[in-house]
Every structure is written in C-alpha cells, then in structure tokens.
Specification:
Elements (H helix, E strand, L loop, with lengths): L23 E3 L21 E3 L5 H7 L6 E3 L5 E3 L14
Parallel strand pairs: 1-4
Antiparallel strand pairs: 2-3, 3-4
The chain binds zinc ion.
Length: 93
C-alpha cells in the first residue's frame, strides 16, 4: 500500500466541484443480490440492504423517504422493483 502523503491543495472557487456520480439501478423481480459487474466481468453479488439514511445527493434523485436499497459491497443504489411494490402508488389528477 503506497500512501501518497501529498497535502490536498485547496482549490478556490472557479472549478466546478466534481459531483460524485450516483448510479441507481432498478431491482429485478425478487432480486436480492447485486448484479453489477466489475472491470473483470465478475458479478458483485453483494447483499442489497435497505438504505434509510441516505445523503442529500441521493435524496435529490430519489426524493425524501424513498424506498431505496444499496449494495453493501459496491454501494450501487437500487430502486425497488416497480412490479413488486408493497403498496401501489396511484396517480391522482
Ligand atoms: Zn454490488
């Protein structure tokens, strides 16, 4: 493990802060394990856990108090399978 001990230069305003890319997938019916593949094509198979306390960046994407899951291995976010919702959300006009 080579640790670069370079002090992070504090960049002043000007450069846009690189927002971390958040990946959200949708679970397949009865999917319980992550099916993301790594660079070598190996399936992650991490356990998808309910993600309650998600940060603001995620909230912007999924909304507050949304049902969302996260792979405990690669941290990919998963929306619940739309066909397997415990409650059906009916659009009202
Ligand atoms: Zn994963």
């Amino acid at each position: 493990m080579a640790e670069a001990a370079t002090p992070a230069p504090s960049t002043p305003a000007g450069a846009p802060s690189p927002a971390p890319e958040i990946k959200i997938k949708t679970r397949k019916p009865r999917q319980r394990a992550c099916d993301e593949k790594d660079a070598k094509g190996k399936v992650c198979a991490g356990h998808l856990k309910r993600y309650y306390d998600y940060p603001k960046e995620v909230e912007k994407l999924v909304g507050p108090k949304a049902e969302i899951y996260r792979c405990e291995h690669c941290k990919t976010l998963y929306r619940p399978d739309p066909n397997e919702l415990p409650r059906s959300y009916v659009l009202r006009y």
